[in-house]
Amino acid sequence: MGKIIITAPGAPLRRSIDHILDSLCPQPAGKKIWVKPNMLGPFEPAQGVTTSPKVLEAVVDALLNRQASVVVGDNPGVPGNQEGIAAITGILDASKGCWRNIGVNTSAVRLTGRWSDITINISSIWLQADLIINLPCLKTHALTLMTGAVKNMFGGVPGRTKSYLHTLAPSANSFAELLVEIYSIRPPEIVIMDALKVMEGNGPSGGKLRPLGVIIGGDNSVSVDAAGSMIMGRRPERIPLLREAYRRELGEIDLSKLAVEGEVPVLPHFKMPSNIIASIANRFNSLAAIYAVVPQIIKDKCIRCGLCARTCRSQAIIEKEPLYYIDYNRCISCYCCAEVCPRQAVRLPHIREELLQRIFHLFRKRSHGES
Description:
Rossmann fold; two-stranded antiparallel sheet
């Protein structure tokens, strides 16, 4: 039977980490352990987009005290200087000298199922480590509804390969299948989820933070995510990622069938992404195109850093003086641009607003005699 440990809100952080490690990782001495935080992009710790440096430092310090050999690393969702991004997020200092650029050494892995003709590179540490400790943070996600432990392993894929994979699986349902396929390469042995603050709304970088003060430990990423979805007030089976992982027998999502220590706190009136209807509609191919939401760039917030354009594999973001614009005909609604924007200058309109905009553009084209 799998095990989940949910600490009491506001419990001392180091004591919570020690308890989780003693319960789930009793003998780490001499083992090479990859600690995998969420390092999405150049976001400062106060923004709550990446794993809290306090959580990471407590985990690393506890492992070093237990004589483990620790490697901290992640591949951010944006191209650029990994060490610089690690410094901005606070992850570099929190790693206590154990941070490594894991994107340098890679191993080729062939996917299976519907992507059996695709070979991708992953960071070699994923295959070489004796143990993997997955250190996600709990947030909503505009495409997958939520992001946590399972999706955090997508960070084992370096470089722009992530945006390329989005083009292979543009819908929420197909992307969930692809994420589970990549996660299954080697599921981590231990999960320690940062739920000190939970992001609601249009995550994983543009939402608002809700204080919770909880750490969730477990021996299965799918099960820990199931607890996370319940914190958000959503049944696990309603999350495409968890539904697919459960179908593939990668983890239990019914907490009544697990050994659960502690109680699941539910955040009242929790806000899911504004395009939740579009995400649900993606389950049905005939509705996906109708309800797809196209991001918009907020001119007053854009600082022309170009991260969105460099990340977009479908080349839907075009530079036109003095700003960037999104080509609606090229956009595949993967929302990578919204994920990586450090100034929250990319917004996702509500589905109703999006449909009204489409009707307006349609009439405008017809009035000008455009085909």
